[in-house]
Amino acid sequence: MTQIVLETKDLTKTFGTRKAVDAINITAYEGEVFGFVGPNGAGKTTTLGMALGLVHPTDGEVYVLGQRVTPNRVQALRDIGALLGAPAFIPYLSAWENIELVARLSPGVDKKRIHEVIELVGLTESARKKVSKFSTGMKQRVGLAMALVHRPRFIILDEPTNGLDPAGMREIRQLLRSLAENGTSALLSSHLLNEVQQVCDRIAVLHRGRVVAQGRVDDLLNRQKPAVRLTVHDAEAAVRAFESLPGVENVQASGNSLLVLGVDSQAVMNHLLQHHVIPTEITAQKTDLESVFMDLTSAN
Question: pTM for the complete prediction?
């Protein structure tokens, strides 16, 4: 049976009269990369803080690796790593020395392991340089190495690709997939929906403190209804034709350009030809996580 690495039960956090997190229930499993997405102010950071024992829940519970976590009960955190916000360093020390300081907090972490994580995050050529000279992206790499050096079973990452160039972002995505396949599960909180779509197995979408969707990325993408964009010479005739096409939910017109929601491109083409309307251009709109996200957050 697949182990649960993170579970919340009606987890709630109230600040004054405002509910930052409102009775959310999420579950992340061993061996997966779990995405946590939502607009700014949705409650993501507060939820991560409660999972790490940094914020006390107003109500509900959070479990990591099967153990309940509170600010006074953090035993499970020995087996997790975290990178939240901007990593903290001693600026006059090198990347190696900063990672080594963290390694000393965990028994059994030797220099060989430090070498391994430095190579994993792509810092081999810069390991002996002072972190004060590093770019934002390079500092993120150091922070990720610090989160991984003690061989955690589960890592929680908040915007880990911040400041990285496209090549660096791809390396981190590949690293997360490799870690998951080798037993280190991950929770990825990110506003980069394309990144989440590429790397995550399952996601939870948080909006106004509540979970509005949760499940496999492929299943959420398949919930998105088809849309077709086309160009015609006679937009009025095309709009009239779509009034009799079953499944059409909406037709948005802008000049000679139309966006038809609810039916696929083949149905659109066949129906227009039956009504003697010939499109000059027709394109099926690609379903992606961004469009799913916009639908979920605008409807709630």
Answer: 0.80
